[in-house]
Amino acid sequence: xxxxxxxxxxxxxxxxxxxxxxxxxxxxxxxxxxxxxxxxxxxxxxxxxxxxxxxxxxxxxxxxxxxxxxxxxxxxxxxxxxxxxxxxxxxxxxxxxxxxxxxxxxxxxxxxxxxxxxxxxxxxxxxxxxxxxxx
Length: 135
Known about the structure:
By secondary structure, this protein is of the alpha+beta class.
């Protein structure tokens, strides 16, 4: 699991993903990051934090949802259709045609997040923010 500062920032700035997860609610095994620097995960209705905080609502904590790689992979097919192999071929084509001048992913999570944001929302990660992919 990528816990790097850049991946956390990418997730935080992916407002579409954050809003969708807030609307759906957290589930068992979802990773979230507290802005005070403590990372923790959501488990069966309770936030289990190192200091043992009581149960809170996701949005009230000021936390960032950190998608796992399987969650990132699932977000792509819903937009482009097809099975996982079709998505994987599309990923390889995207990697082959992408110009990696400003940002190069440093983990599989970063790669799948960048691919998903481009495919689903036409956004690219540049200068520490998601921007329209046509620019």
